[in-house]
């Protein structure tokens, strides 16, 4: 493992086993002292050999140099777990018996925990699984901003709020890299939709680019020392990202000091000389061309031989590849070996999944279940039994196992309660029945027979749990949803069940927002349960039975209607086929609703608990600070209920004196805490003054104007009972 552990003198081995010490000082991922050995290797390589390092030699490998004992570099997807092995020259699965992996809760689920400590542990588990399968580069985390809920890949991404993404992604990257695997943050940059993703050109102003869309990437590169960055498919201001001099060279490499390698998304490279000069280091892709015909294969070699490209450019690309290989200790006998599908990983997955679940509404106190009053439960809905580790296009994992909701509920309650299942709805698609489901339009017609059966069961049961939502075919890479509708006629199902059994709990399994306005108005009890990993069923049961007190908070807004969000209000999605203008600028997500006083269905940062918390006071240590300081506030919080539980304190900044356009409020810090029933505590929250910065286009830098700011403190973006003033001075 790559951390230095400082032991007090005399620490015995037994003590070590009993009290595993926390990491004290992280060794930098890129060892600054390694330069000379990299240069020595570089000097030994012929031009052909250097070029071999720079392009795919198989679907998920880039080339090695046998003569010098340099193996290929093994890449693996991705955000859900270590992908199954595919053929060297096609997407065909090899059908192996030893490539099962742990299915991890997806990006939005992880973000909903608002718990960076869990993100670190999650990253570590990912790193161990990657090593156990002998991988070098993990193609994750995927940290594009959720600009619109319609984007098909939102479930892989984290949030609509750059700060939340950054604070969760940095420890994730660090966790992965502790196990000698490079994390590849993707998709750099401004890849926020799947519609026309390979050609669309995003038009946005410089400030929005840096402040909103690059901000989490910057954090993972500068703080997290991410080993790799993936160049995205799209164009930004007319230029494909994989040959974007400004994004790759000026910003990523020069300004942020990125030491690692830039790899193209699969088939996202469009040139040889431009891409090489403008900052791409490794070209990966599919087999639509022979690997030798890749832009960075024979054509690159030719370009140098012809004198069209200086060999020094190739040297720098190869140097970066060697640097990453060195950082992950490729070939070293003491490289981390990892583990896969272990109990430890199941436990981590369950911990994350439990903390991710968001309790949205519990008006009749149906939750946690009162087992004295319940003899029978009707579990209804396709998502109660559906495995979400697979489906759709792209990111999938051949899960070693997956416990869907019904199975989890049966395991937790089956001894005490009779549980029956009714399908309720069936995922149906129009279009060509021979096509894969994710390509086909959704059929929204309710299935009357399945509804009748569900109604009958619900009527005869003490309680109904409807497990509704989307699925992995509805939310998929390579397509965006056409609208926010809850698919497959589920509204009719929910209405019908609620009409016969008012004791109905609605659980939404989805990775991104759906239109819940009708369902919400009729439901007393609503739970959001995500694509929540291998233990999703157990985690849901933990929350429903009260074994775990829910503490997840929404990482995005649940709007009342699509047009309440900036890109849709402004008709700025999905563009005209060529170009998309990000007209809402910096006012993304909840910032748009706040600016125009629009009520969300549920606000960003919202989530209930089985206990109640009372914010008594908030104080600030110093109310005048300089731009390089850290603001320290103390919040007195009491758990006023009867159960232990977590609460997440959220701090938003408002800008009463701003002379430029700023969001009405913007998240600048948060702190998740655990309080026992009745406990009261003064909780310190630290906020670097830099969190108040805006991107000053004229200075081409972040700047915190010397003026007065207001810090609003509470437990969601719309529940902020305290406000503190702070002065930033020169
Ligand atoms: C996706 C990437 C993924 C790559 C390799 C692309 O289609 O956009 O996220 O890592 O394929 O599977």
How would you portray this structure in words?
By secondary structure, this protein is an alpha/beta fold. The chain has 20 helices and 29 strands. The strands form 7 sheets. A 7-stranded mixed sheet has the order 3-4-5-6-7-9-12. A 6-stranded mixed sheet has the order 13-18-17-16-14-15, sandwiched between helices. A 5-stranded mixed sheet has the order 21-29-28-23-24, with no helix packed on it. It is globular and about 80 Å long. The model is unreliable at 1-24 (pLDDT under 50). The structure holds beta-D-glucopyranose (BGC). Beta-D-glucopyranose binds at residues 77-78, 139, 186, 265-266, 394.
Radius of gyration: 26 Å
Strand order of the largest sheet: 3-4-5-6-7-9-12
Distance between the termini: 43 Å
Kindly state the percentage of residues in helix: 25-40%
Number of helices: 20
Question: How would you describe this structure in keywords?
Answer:
globular; 730 residues; six-stranded mixed β-sheet; 29 strands; 20 helices; alpha/beta; binds beta-D-glucopyranose; disordered N terminus; seven-stranded mixed β-sheet
């Amino acid at each position: 493992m790559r951390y230095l552990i400082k032991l007090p003198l005399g620490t015995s081995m037994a003590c070590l086993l009993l009290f595993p010490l926390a990491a004290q000082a992280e060794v930098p991922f890129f060892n600054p002292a390694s330069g000379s050995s990299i240069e020595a290797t570089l000097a030994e390589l012929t031009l052909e050999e250097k070029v071999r390092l720079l392009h795919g030699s198989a679907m998920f490998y880039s080339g090695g140099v046998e003569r010098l004992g340099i193996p290929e570099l093994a890449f693996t997807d991705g955000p859900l777990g270590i992908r199954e092995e595919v053929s060297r020259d096609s997407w065909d699965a090899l059908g192996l018996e030893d490539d099962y992996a742990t299915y991890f809760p997806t990006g939005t689920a992880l973000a909903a925990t608002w718990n960076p400590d869990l993100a670190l542990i999650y990253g570590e588990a990912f790193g161990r699984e990657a090593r156990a399968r002998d991988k070098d580069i993990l193609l994750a985390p995927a940290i594009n901003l959720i600009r619109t809920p319609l984007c098909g890949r939102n479930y892989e991404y984290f949030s609509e709020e750059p700060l939340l993404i950054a604070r969760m992604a940095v420890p994730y990257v660090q966790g992965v890299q502790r196990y000698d695997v490079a994390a590849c943050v993707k998709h750099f940059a401004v890849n926020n939709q799947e519609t026309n993703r390979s050609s669309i050109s995003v038009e946005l102003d410089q400030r929005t680019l840096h402040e909103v869309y690059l901000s989490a990437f910057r954090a993972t590169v500068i703080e997290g020392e991410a080993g790799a960055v993936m160049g995205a498919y799209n164009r930004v201001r007319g230029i494909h990202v994989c040959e974007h001099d400004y994004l790759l060279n000026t910003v990523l490499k020069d300004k942020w000091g990125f030491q690692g390698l830039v790899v193209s998304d699969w088939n996202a490279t469009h040139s040889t000389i431009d891409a090489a000069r403008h900052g791409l280091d490794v070209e990966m892709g599919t087999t639509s061309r022979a690997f030798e015909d890749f832009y960075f294969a024979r054509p690159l070699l030719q370009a140098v031989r012809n004198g069209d490209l200086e060999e020094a450019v190739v040297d720098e690309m190869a140097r970066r590849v060697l640097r990453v290989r060195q950082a992950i200790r490729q070939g070293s006998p003491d490289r981390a070996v990892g583990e896969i599908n272990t109990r430890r990983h199941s436990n981590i997955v369950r911990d994350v999944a439990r903390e991710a679940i968001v309790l949205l509404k519990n008006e009749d106190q149906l939750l946690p279940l009162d087992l004295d009053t319940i003899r029978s439960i009707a579990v209804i809905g396709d998502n109660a039994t559906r495995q979400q580790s697979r489906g759709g296009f792209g990111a999938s994992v051949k899960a070693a196992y997956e416990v869907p909701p019904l199975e989890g509920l049966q395991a937790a309650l089956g001894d005490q309660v009779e549980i029956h299942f009714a399908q309720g709805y069936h995922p149906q698609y129009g279009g060509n029945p021979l096509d894969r489901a994710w390509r086909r339009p959704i059929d929204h017609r309710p299935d009357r027979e399945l509804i009748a059966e569900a109604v009958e069961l619900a009527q005869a049961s003490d309680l109904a749990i409807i497990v509704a939502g989307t699925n992995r075919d509805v939310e998929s890479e390579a397509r965006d949803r056409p609208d926010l509708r809850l698919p497959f006629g589920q509204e009719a199902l929910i209405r019908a069940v609620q009409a016969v059994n008012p004791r109905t709990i609605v659980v939404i399994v989805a990775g991104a927002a759906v239109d819940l306005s009708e369902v919400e108005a009729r439901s007393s009890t609503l739970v959001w349960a995500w694509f929540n990993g291998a233990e999703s069923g157990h985690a849901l049961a933990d929350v429903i039975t009260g074994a775990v007190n829910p503490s997840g908070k929404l990482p995005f807004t649940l709007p009342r209607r699509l047009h309440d969000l900036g890109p849709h209000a402004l008709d700025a999605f999905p563009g005209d086929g060529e170009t998309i203008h990000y007209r809402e600028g910096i006012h993304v997500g909840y910032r748009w609703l706040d600016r125009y006083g629009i009520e969300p269905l549920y606000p960003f940062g919202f989530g209930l608990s089985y206990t109640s918390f009372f914010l008594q006071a908030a104080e600030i240590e110093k109310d005048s600070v300089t731009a390089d300081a850290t603001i320290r506030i103390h919040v007195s919080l009491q758990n006023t209920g009867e159960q232990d539980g977590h609460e997440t304190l959220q701090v938003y900044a408002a800008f009463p004196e701003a002379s430029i356009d700023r969001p009405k409020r913007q998240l600048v810090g948060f702190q998740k805490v655990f309080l026992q029933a009745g406990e009261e505590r003064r909780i310190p929250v630290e906020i670097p003054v830099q969190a108040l910065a805006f991107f000053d286009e004229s200075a081409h830098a972040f700047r915190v104007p010397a003026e007065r700011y207001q810090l609003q403190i509470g437990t969601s973006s719309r529940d902020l009972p305290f406000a503190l003033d702070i002065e930033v001075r020169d």
